[in-house]
């Protein structure tokens, strides 16, 4: 097997919160336990969603928690050429097409019905680019390391957007191209992205790229039973190491890694060293209904 290469890939739409710490920590521990490479990719593919300073805050937060990444930080905002080349490859294979349809036009359908597949419906209108999912139909399958076998019917996935009408690259294309170019072979991330994985597998197949292994983590829920997120104003993580210590301990507890109580106030480097040696992701119960509660 080739050497482990993992990554943490936050969207800098704001600073990291406790839910993103759990995802970063699990992916860090998985990589370090395997003596692998752990890269950092800032997913600023949608600049209007990324307030100035948010990416820098994320870097400081990761440092405070001792989550030191390998190599230079990768920025999606600098990868236009790579995404354009991938789209051109798909187009050359007849797997991508421009689409003028608006969501409003197909609102009575569960997925986009593919009206522009054989010619743009309204050539004078702005156009997005979509992947053709109706050619060489085959179920999308993979074995998630925690959630087990996953199977999706491509007919239910529809033709995913690759480039948006406003000219911005779609997240699905950017992630797939970056994971491949960065040699990522292990993806550890939150179960909120489980639904995105089939599109990413489809795209990897269409582009002839290797398929990484996946481990999706149960989501961290707030006291209100909602997923912790910037939208429900989960507090930002600290940027100073002493304040990071108890939160790191809590995140390790939540990941079922049973950190010793004696380490609750220990420097983050000491807590991490202990956790890396004992990392056992299977302790996280693979129950799709299970959520991690931040108040645990
Ligand atoms: N940028 C995505 C997020 O912050 C994560 C993408 C990934 O891990 O594949 O939710």
Automatic annotation (TrEMBL):
Give the co-factor note.
Answer: Binds 1 zinc ion per subunit.
Provide the E.C. number(s) assigned to this enzyme: 6.1.1.-
- Identify the cofactor(s): Zn(2+)
Q: Does the keyword Cell division apply?
A: no
In Swiss-Prot or TrEMBL terms, this protein is called Glutamyl-Q tRNA(Asp) synthetase
PANTHER family attached here? GLUTAMATE--TRNA LIGASE, GLUTAMYL-Q TRNA(ASP) SYNTHETASE
Function summary: Catalyzes the tRNA-independent activation of glutamate in presence of ATP and the subsequent transfer of glutamate onto a tRNA(Asp). Glutamate is transferred on the 2-amino-5-(4,5-dihydroxy-2-cyclopenten-1-yl) moiety of the queuosine in the wobble position of the QUC anticodon.
| UniProt-listed NCBIfam families | PRK05710.1-3, queuosine_YadB
Residues annotated as binding ATP: 230
Q: Start and end of every Glutamyl/glutaminyl-tRNA synthetase class Ib catalytic domain? A: 5-108, 124-234
**Keywords (A to Z) from UniProt:** Aminoacyl-tRNA synthetase, ATP-binding, Ligase, Metal-binding, Nucleotide-binding, Protein biosynthesis, Zinc
The Swiss-Prot or TrEMBL record describes its family as follows: Belongs to the class-I aminoacyl-tRNA synthetase family. GluQ subfamily.
UniProt-annotated binding residues for L-glutamate: 7-11, 43, 171, 189
Quote the InterPro entries the UniProt record gives: Glu-Q_tRNA(Asp)_Synthase (IPR022380), Glu/Gln-tRNA-synth (IPR000924), Glu/Gln-tRNA-synth_Ib_cat-dom (IPR020058), GluQ/Sye (IPR049940), Rossmann-like_a/b/a_fold (IPR014729)
Isomerase listed as a keyword: no
């Amino acid at each position: 097997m080739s050497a482990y290469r993992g990554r943490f890939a936050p969207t800098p739409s704001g600073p990291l919160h406790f839910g993103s710490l759990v995802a970063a920590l699990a992916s860090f521990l998985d990589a370090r336990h395997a003596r692998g490479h752990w890269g950092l990719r800032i997913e600023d593919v949608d600049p209007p969603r990324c307030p100035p300073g948010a990416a820098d805050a994320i870097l400081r937060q990761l440092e405070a928690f001792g989550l030191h990444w390998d190599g230079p930080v990768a920025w999606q905002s600098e990868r236009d050429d790579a995404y354009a080349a991938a789209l051109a490859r798909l187009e050359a294979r007849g797997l991508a097409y421009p689409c003028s349809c608006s969501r409003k036009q197909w609102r009575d359908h569960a997925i986009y019905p593919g009206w522009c597949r054989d010619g743009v419906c309204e050539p004078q209108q702005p156009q997005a680019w979509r992947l053709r999912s109706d050619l060489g139909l085959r179920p999308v399958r993979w074995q998630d390391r925690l959630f087990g076998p996953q199977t999706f019917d491509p007919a239910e996935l529809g033709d995913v957007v690759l480039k948006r009408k406003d000219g911005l690259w779609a997240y699905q294309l950017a992630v797939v191209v970056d994971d491949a170019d960065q040699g990522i072979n292990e993806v550890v991330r939150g179960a909120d992205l489980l639904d995105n994985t089939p599109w990413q597998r489809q795209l990897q197949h269409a582009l002839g790229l290797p398929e990484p292994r996946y481990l999706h983590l149960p989501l961290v829920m707030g006291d209100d039973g909602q997923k912790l997120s910037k939208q429900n104003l989960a507090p930002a993580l600290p940027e100073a190491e002493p304040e990071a210590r108890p939160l790191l301990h809590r995140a390790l507890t939540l990941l079922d890694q049973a950190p010793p109580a004696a380490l609750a106030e220990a420097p983050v480097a000491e807590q991490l060293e202990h956790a890396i040696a004992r990392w056992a992701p299977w302790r996280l119960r693979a129950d799709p209904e299970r959520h991690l509660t931040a108040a645990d």
